[in-house]
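Customer escalation, tier 2.

The customer says the design service returned an amino acid string that "doesn't look like it belongs to this structure." They asked us to rerun it and document both sides in this ticket. The original C-alpha cells are below, unchanged.
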C-alpha cells in the first residue's frame, strides 16, 4: 500500500515562501518611510540617537581595528563590553562591514526587513513540527514576525536578533529530546548566547520551563545519560560564546543598575495598579508606541516592550486551545507564563531578578501563543468559537471601560470621560482590533469546509492587517518630521563634515539644543569625544563618579549647563549650542563665541584644561564624601581626591588640603585654579586603539607631581612612565592618575579588555570540542544505521519510512470540525482527524498514488 502524495508545497518551498511573504510585507511597511526620509529610515527617540550612530561607529571602529577602547563612548569605554549588547553579536550588524561608512545609515530599514523575514522563517520551522498542515505553520510564522512585540521593538532595533534566533533554541531542544540529534542544541545555545547575553538569561529560564512541561507531557523520556549529554551541550554552547560573554559579564556585574532588588511586597504586587491593565490590554490590541502609552498611561512601563497582540487572531486561538486541552503541555506553559507576567518577582526571573520592570521576554510567550493558535485550527477537540467569544468579550469590556469611565470628576458630575491619553489613536486601535475579529469570524464561517482556501485567505488577511497596523504604528512615532528633515539628516548623518576644530585628541566637546538639554549622542554621529552620552553599558567608574557631583547616571550621562565646573575638569573645550547664548545664561561669561558650524553656534571654554594635568594638593575620599555636591565639583579643580588607603603615600610629596578651609567659588578663583592645572598639563595627548600616549615637562626642582587623566578607571589598564611600569592610582572617584618625576616624561597607558584573552581561549577550545563532538556523533549514528540495515530487511525499513512520510504530509480536509455541531461519524477511518500528539493512533489512508 502506498502513502498519499501531499497537495501542499514541499517543506523547503514553503519555508522560502514564508521568508518571501514576510520580506514583501516588510518592504511595503518600510518603503513609504524610506521614500519620505530620502533613502534613510528614521524613527524617533532611541532608534535615531542610539541604533544609527551605534551601528555606524562600531562599523567604522571594526574596519579600522579599534576594538579595545572606545574614545567616543561617554568619557571612554570598553568597546567589546559596551557594544556586545547592541551590535557585536549580531550577524546583521556584520553584514554592514563590506559597505562604506556613509552607506550604513541607509541599511537600517533593509536589515529590519531581513530580520522580520527570518523571524517568520525560524518560527515557521518550529511551529511546523506540531501541525500537519504546513500552511498553518506559515501563518504562525507570520503571526510571530508581525506580533505586537516585534512591531513595538522597531524602536529597539537590536531586540529583533533574539526574536529571530530564539525559535532555533527550541528546535535544537526538540531535535535532541525527540529525535536524539546531537549538536543542534549546542549550536542553538551558542547562537542565542552570542547574539545577546541579556536576552539569553531569559531564554534559559524559558527553556527550563519548556523542558519541564514537555517532560511532564510524556512526549519525552529522560534518563541520567540523556540528561548529562543535554547539560553538556548547553554548557558547550555557552562556552563557545565566551569571547563576548566573559568581557560582557565582567562589565555588567560592576554596573549598579544590575543590583536593584525587590523589597517587601513589591516582589508580589506591582506598585502601579495600571500596570495590570496594561499587561492584559497588550494581548488584545496593537501596542502603544514606546514612551507614549495610551490605554494605561499610569502603568510606568513606557519602555518596557509591552506588546503581544497577534494580527487577525488576537487571543482567539489561545483561549480555544486552553479551554479544550486539559493537561496539555502547551496549556501548562501558557498558564505558567501568564502568571509570571502578573507577579513582579516571577516576571523578573527573565532578567536575573532585577527589580526594574520589563516585558522584554514576551516574544517567547508570543511564540507559544502562535503555536497554540495554529494547533487549535486543526484539532477536532477545539471549538474555535469558544475562544472567539472570550476574546471578543474581553476586547469589548476593555474598550468600554477605557472609553467611557469618567476621567475627571468634580463634585458628583463627571467633567471628562475616557481614560485614554490620545483619543484618536485609541479609537483607531479599537477599530483595528474589532475589524480583525470580524474578519476572522467571517473567514471561519465562509471557509469552514475548505481548509486550503481558509489558509490562503487567512495568510492574506494576516499580511494585510500586519501592514496596516505596522504602518500606522511607525507613523505615530514620525508625527513630527521637522527634527528628521531639519536636523538629523543635514547635521547628524553628515558626520559633522562642516565642523572645523583643531585636530587634537586632548579635548572633549559638549552639546545643548538651546533649552539647556543635550541632544543625545550628537558627538557620536560625528565620532568625537564628548561628555554627553546616551548609553546604558559604560564603565562602572562613570556610574560611580557622576552621582557624587549631583549628575544622575542611569542610562545616560547628561551634565546640565548649571554644572559648569565639570567642564574644565573633564577637558571640555567647545560647546555646541543650537541657539545663541544669552547674557542671562549662568555660564555666559565662561565662553567665547567662535563660529557657526554644522547647525550649531560654537563657543570655546575660557577655562579649558587639556587632557592630562597635575595636582599639587589632595584630599581623601572620606573628606570628599563629607562635602556637598557643589563643593565636590569645586574642589576637583583644586585638589585631587585619593582613596583613603593611599593618603599616607602622598603626605610627603603633596599638600593635604584642609577641607575646613573656605574654598573661593568666585569666577576669578575658578579661573586661577584652572590656570594652575593648565600650567602643568600634557604638551601632547594622543589616543589609539589600545590606550594613549602623553608627554609632560615638570620643574626639575620639584619632587614630581600626580598626573591626572579624566579617563575612566578599569581593571584592564596598565601604565608606564618613561618605559618603567607605574602604579595607576584610582583618583577623583572614578578616574586614573600616575606619579610623574621632574623633567620630561613620556606616559603610556595600555588597555586590554578584561576577560577577552580568557574568553578567546575558551571559545577556541570549545569550538574544537564541538566539532569533534558533532562529527563524532554523526559517524556513530551512521555506523549504527549500517548495523541496523544489515539485520533488517530493506522493504521493512521502506515501509516504515513511507508511513512516517504519509503521516507528516497528511492534509487536514475539513475545517468545519472546529465548529462541531455533532460528531463527524460520516468520515471514513482514514479521514478522521485526530488530536496532535496522537499521530501514531491512525494510519495513513490507503491510496495507490506514489509517495
Amino acid at each position: 500500500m502506498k502513502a498519499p502524495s501531499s497537495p501542499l508545497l514541499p517543506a523547503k518551498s514553503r519555508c522560502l515562501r514564508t521568508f518571501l511573504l514576510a520580506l514583501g510585507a516588510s518592504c511595503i511597511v518600510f518603503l513609504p518611510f524610506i521614500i519620505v526620509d530620502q533613502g534613510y529610515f528614521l524613527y524617533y527617540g532611541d532608534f535615531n540617537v542610539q541604533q544609527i550612530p551605534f551601528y555606524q561607529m562600531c562599523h567604522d571602529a571594526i574596519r579600522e581595528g579599534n576594538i579595545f577602547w572606545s574614545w567616543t563612548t561617554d568619557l571612554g569605554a570598553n568597546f567589546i563590553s559596551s557594544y556586545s549588547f547592541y551590535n557585536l553579536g549580531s550577524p546583521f550588524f556584520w553584514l554592514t562591514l563590506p559597505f562604506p561608512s556613509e552607506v550604513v545609515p541607509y541599511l537600517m530599514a533593509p536589515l529590519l526587513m531581513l530580520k522580520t523575514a527570518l523571524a517568520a522563517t525560524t518560527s515557521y520551522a518550529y511551529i511546523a513540527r506540531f501541525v500537519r498542515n504546513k500552511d498553518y505553520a506559515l501563518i504562525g510564522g507570520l503571526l510571530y514576525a508581525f506580533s505586537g512585540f516585534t512591531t513595538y521593538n522597531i524602536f529597539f532595533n537590536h531586540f529583533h536578533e533574539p526574536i529571530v534566533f530564539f525559535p532555533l533554541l527550541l528546535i535544537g531542544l526538540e531535535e535532541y529530546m525527540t529525535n536524539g540529534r546531537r549538536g543542534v542544541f549546542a549550536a542553538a545555545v551558542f547562537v542565542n548566547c552570542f547574539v545577546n547575553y541579556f536576552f539569553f538569561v531569559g531564554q534559559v529560564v524559558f527553556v527550563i520551563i519548556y523542558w519541564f512541561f514537555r517532560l511532564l507531557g510524556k512526549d519525552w523520556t529522560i534518563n541520567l545519560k540523556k540528561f548529562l549529554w543535554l547539560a553538556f551541550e548547553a554548557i558547550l554552547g555557552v562556552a563557545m560564546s565566551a569571547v563576548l560573554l566573559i568581557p560582557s559579564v565582567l562589565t555588567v556585574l560592576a554596573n549598579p543598575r544590575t543590583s536593584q532588588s525587590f523589597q517587601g511586597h513589591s516582589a508580589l504586587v506591582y506598585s502601579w495598579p495600571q500596570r495590570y491593565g496594561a499587561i492584559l490590554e497588550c494581548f488584545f490590541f496593537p501596542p502603544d508606541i514606546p514612551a507614549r502609552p495610551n490605554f494605561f498611561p499610569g502603568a510606568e512601563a513606557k519602555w518596557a516592550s509591552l506588546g503581544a497582540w497577534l494580527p487577525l487572531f488576537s487571543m482567539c486561538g489561545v483561549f480555544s486551545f486552553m479551554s479544550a486541552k486539559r493537561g496539555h503541555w502547551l496549556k501548562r506553559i501558557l498558564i505558567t507564563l501568564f502568571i509570571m507576567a502578573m507577579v513582579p518577582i516571577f516576571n523578573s526571573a527573565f532578567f536575573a531578578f532585577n527589580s526594574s520592570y520589563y516585558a522584554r521576554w514576551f516574544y517567547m510567550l508570543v511564540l507559544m501563543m502562535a503555536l497554540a493558535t495554529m494547533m487549535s485550527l486543526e484539532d477536532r477537540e477545539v471549538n474555535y468559537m469558544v475562544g472567539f467569544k472570550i476574546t471578543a468579550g474581553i476586547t469589548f469590556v476593555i474598550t468600554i471601560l477605557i472609553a467611557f469611565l469618567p476621567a475627571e470628576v468634580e463634585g458628583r458630575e463627571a467633567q471628562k470621560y475616557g481614560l485614554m491619553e490620545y483619543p484618536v489613536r485609541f479609537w483607531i486601535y479599537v477599530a483595528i482590533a474589532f475589524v480583525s475579529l470580524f474578519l476572522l469570524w467571517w473567514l471561519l464561517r465562509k471557509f469552514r469546509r475548505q481548509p486550503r482556501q481558509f489558509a490562503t485567505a487567512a495568510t492574506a488577511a494576516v499580511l494585510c492587517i500586519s501592514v496596516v497596523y505596522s504602518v500606522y504604528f511607525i507613523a505615530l512615532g514620525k508625527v513630527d518630521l521637522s527634527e528628521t528633515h531639519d536636523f538629523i539628516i543635514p547635521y547628524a548623518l553628515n558626520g559633522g563634515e562642516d565642523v572645523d576644530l583643531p585636530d587634537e585628541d586632548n579635548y572633549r566637546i559638549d552639546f545643548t539644543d538651546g533649552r539647556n538639554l543635550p541632544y543625545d549622542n550628537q558627538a557620536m554621529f560625528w565620532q568625537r569625544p564628548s561628555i554627553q552620552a546616551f548609553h546604558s553599558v559604560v564603565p562602572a567608574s562613570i556610574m560611580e563618579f557622576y552621582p557624587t557631583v549631583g549628575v544622575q547616571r542611569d542610562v545616560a550621562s547628561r551634565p546640565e549647563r548649571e554644572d559648569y565646573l565639570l567642564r574644565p575638569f573633564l577637558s571640555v573645550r567647545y560647546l555646541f549650542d543650537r541657539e545663541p547664548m544669552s547674557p542671562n545664561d549662568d555660564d555666559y561669561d565662561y565662553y567665547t563665541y567662535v563660529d557657526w558650524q554644522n547647525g550649531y553656534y560654537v563657543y570655546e571654554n575660557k577655562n579649558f584644561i587639556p587632557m592630562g594635568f597635575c595636582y599639587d594638593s589632595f584630599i581623601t575620599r572620606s573628606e570628599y564624601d563629607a562635602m556637598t555636591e557643589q563643593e565636590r565639583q569645586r574642589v576637583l579643580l583644586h585638589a585631587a581626591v585619593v582613596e583613603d588607603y593611599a593618603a599616607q603615600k602622598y603626605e610627603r610629596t603633596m599638600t593635604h588640603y584642609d577641607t575646613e578651609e573656605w574654598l573661593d567659588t568666585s569666577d576669578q578663583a575658578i579661573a586661577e585654579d584652572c590656570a594652575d592645572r593648565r600650567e602643568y598639563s600634557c604638551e601632547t595627548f594622543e589616543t589609539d586603539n589600545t590606550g594613549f600616549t602623553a608627554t609632560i615637562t615638570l620643574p626639575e626642582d620639584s619632587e614630581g607631581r600626580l598626573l591626572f587623566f579624566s579617563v575612566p578607571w578599569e581593571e584592564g589598564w596598565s601604565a608606564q612612565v618613561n618605559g618603567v611600569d607605574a602604579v595607576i592610582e584610582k583618583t577623583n572617584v572614578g578616574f586614573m592618575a600616575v606619579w610623574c618625576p621632574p623633567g620630561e616624561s613620556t606616559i603610556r597607558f595600555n588597555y586590554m579588555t578584561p576577560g577577552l584573552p580568557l574568553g578567546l581561549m575558551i571559545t577556541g577550545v570549545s569550538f574544537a570540542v564541538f566539532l569533534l563532538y558533532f562529527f563524532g556523533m554523526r559517524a556513530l549514528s551512521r555506523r549504527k544505521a549500517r548495523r541496523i540495515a544489515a539485520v533488517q530487511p530493506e522493504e521493512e525499513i521502506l515501509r516504515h519510512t513511507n508511513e512516517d512520510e504519509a503521516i507528516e504530509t497528511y492534509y487536514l480536509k475539513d475545517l468545519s470540525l472546529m465548529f462541531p455541531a455533532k460528531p463527524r461519524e460520516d468520515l471514513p477511518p482514514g479521514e478522521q482527524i485526530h488530536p496532535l500528539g496522537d499521530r501514531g493512533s491512525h494510519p495513513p489512508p490507503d491510496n495507490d498514488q506514489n509517495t
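Tier 2 assessment: The sequence is consistent with the input. Confidence is low (pLDDT under 50) at residues 1-8, 799-851. The two ends are 10 Å apart (CA to CA). Sent an explanation to the customer and offered a walkthrough call.
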